[in-house]
Amino acid sequence: MSKHDVLDEHLAQQFLWRISIPDLIALKESRPKQFVAKVQVREAPAGEVRARWERVGRDCAELSQQVARTWDMAPGARQATATATMLGRVRRMGFDVIGMSAHPVEILRLWRLVARHHGALPRKGRKDGIHALSFVPIPTESPELPDLLVEAAIAGDEWLAFLLEQSLQDESPDRRYPEASERLAQVLDEGPSWGAQVIAGRLLFVFADIEVAIPALRRALRRPHAGVRTVAIEALLDRAPHALTDADVQWLLEDAVKHPPTPACGTRGLEMIDEYGRALITAVGQVRPVEGHRPLAVLADGGGVDVRGQRIGLDAGWAIRALAVGYPERAVMWIDRALYGARSWRRYDAVEAAGLLPEAMARPRLLEAAAGPGRYPVERAQALWVERFEEPCPVVPLAGLDVGLLTGEPSESLLSRLSLLRSGPDDARARMLEALVAEARETSLVSGAEVLSPLARETLSLLLFNLRDPAVSPRGPELPGSEEAWAELLLRHFGEAAFEGLAALAARGARVGADHEWLEVLAGLERKGLLTESWRERLRAIAREALLSPLYHGGTGPLYTLSCLGAPADLVEPLWRAAVERPQEDEPGAPRSALPYGAYWAAEALAKVKDAPALEARLGREAEAAMLAKDYRKLERIVRIGSHRGTEAALALGLRCLDGVDEDPASEDAALQCGYALQAVGRIDGAWVLAALRRPESLRFALATRLCRPEASPEVLEALKAALSSDARSGAAAAEAATALVALQLVTVDDARLDGILERAAPGARSLLAGLLLRMGAPLSRLRGHFRELLLGKDGAAAIGAYGILSTQEPDGLRSLLDEVWAEGPNAALRDWLGYDLGELNEIEHYWCHEDEEPSGDADEGLSADDEDELDLE
Fold first, then answer.
1. What pLDDT does residue 808 have?
2. Cα gap 104→97, rounded to integer Å
3. Exposed (0-12), middle (13-18) or buried (19+): which is 851, by Cβ within 10 Å?
4. What pTM was estimated for this model as a whole?
5. Sign of the CA dihedral running 101, 107, 108, 111
6. How many CA atoms within 13 Å lie on the side-chain side of 271?
7. pLDDT digits over 178-198, tens only?
8. Using CB atoms within 10 A of its CB, is residue 42 exposed (0-12), middle (13-18) or buried (19+)?
9. 3-state secondary structure of 307
């Protein structure tokens, strides 16, 4: 089918609209005779037409006189009222207002009056009045035209500016008004509203001398308003591409990481954000800043600052599209992870991005997406193929199916079922899967010999095809509810063939660095005893391939697999990097791959590596270096690995960290983790705990209270009870002892001593004890004063700890407490979190300024000049 419309000239004549002005009356013979024969059209007598236009001429002459009188008035309310009256008259005149073409000065001044007083005009009928005004050609040669452009910009009304722009372009599309350039640039810089600045930028773009406005346009790039930024980008790219610099676009990309759009922007604001996102992608494609891929990679990885747990626009999908346009060789990594991974909620975004890649990169990826499953990604990929290459998408009938499982030619039933699973409606796909699962449950392996019938192989191949993307798999009561349940079903009924098919899916994702994949699902079946040794080895090989791939970015899949199945000694180095050297990105905007789960599973895998004597020496050496450098986070990781492996040097350094906590209080958190690790392997016993408890003035006391177990000795319990009356470390020791005793259920939450202990306790210990009491059932009314002081206090860690337990327990009376704290001013470290719970906008949510946007249409409210008597303007 042709992509181009073909105009039927004869048919067009039948629908041609005409305005019958005497000098321009269309001739009867210009109408097709066939049309005249079929439709009887009443032609007004020439006399009636002339009489009508004589009346129009008189009305327009009167209107022009009104305009002249109003123009001579002093600016103010009376002039605004007169302008409203004239605009109402224009609206009632409709097409007759074209008679004002005979009064070019007055029509231009009427536009200017409407622009000047736009905000004071009655909203009812205002839009229609401006529309009628646009029927009259504007005199583009008038010396007042630049003034009109500036006044229209200051008015800040999209509808007025749109009609003005269209009218001027209809009359003289290439005309420029350099006299307006500097003043429009000033409105762009200092306009009274964001709407005024957007319109000023647009009018600069279309009608002014762009070179004069370049400094203002570049300043506009950094305004916190998406519409202003969009018009600045478009103006610079189209009319002054040399002026949009690498630094400009880099700043915009980095700003996208730090300042996400928010729901507070409103519907129109979010539309502007979407338009801004498209404009910024275009800028990325044309400018390609050298380091622009870095902030985009952070966003593509799911990172960047979020608002209330989400990013609305300028998100991962947007970043992948921007990478595809500006850095296609980097974009393919993210696109492939979504397309070839098995659990991607970004597949649709990846399809859109694939359509933006260079042709050689786009073709295989669009074909992969078109293979399915998933109706929407399939249909979109096929549509993008047609748009891009102007031909139908050449998806072969068996695309996406593991044909290696088949023993013969595919049956007609397989082809029809495959077509339905690829892109059929969800309810039909669900019924088809239910039928296939029923067939699978009827399949039995012949005497354990792994012999499958051709029909069983077709069933298995179709189920595996559906599992290429479980995220789009239909749900139903008769279907497995998780990927693990699907894998268990297939392995139990199809055996080796099912494992090979699932392993192939796992390898697809592993090769492109995808995370949360079939590799993890299959490794997790080890705990159910479903894996044979050959299957374990196959999964270890896939994990190795992924871990050593240049596409690996720190995902948990291969690390989790090796922690479950064991890791060979030759993988110590990449595991060490992931477990010990991997940075913990605490600052806002960190990519998701920087989260700590990978470090945990890598440490678990390292702990199980066998036949690696060099690893023992390295653990001791690196632990010593971390201790000297006071890198306590690294030390804690090494001690945890060493404790599992029984590495003496690492264990000794962990004990040193515990014993030296008083020398460096900053090590307290790491020392506690070392304590847990050492206690788990029996290197800390009751004697160490008792010795520490006998010194409440030491931070070792605090650690010992956290290491007390239910089976603690009577001496340990007596030491804890004795500390209840201690005032050591500003009352912290007593609160720590009370916390331990309450946790051991040796002191009840209503014990009368606890109130006094809480009153005297330092903030950190007070927060821990109050939180435990709340968890153990104490009413908030009893603890309210303590929590209030913690939330308002200067200790940020204590405030965050107290707020954390309050938000998880949600006790009665919480809202009134939080409202009170908010009104008085909470701890600064807590402010954003508390504001989130209370629905208050935080600093990030205030960044984008779209609060003055009005709906595009006029509300039917306010007075209308149509209902008022014409003013006597004599």
1. 92
2. 12
3. exposed
4. 0.80
5. negative
6. 7
7. 999 999 999 999 999 999 999
8. exposed
9. strand
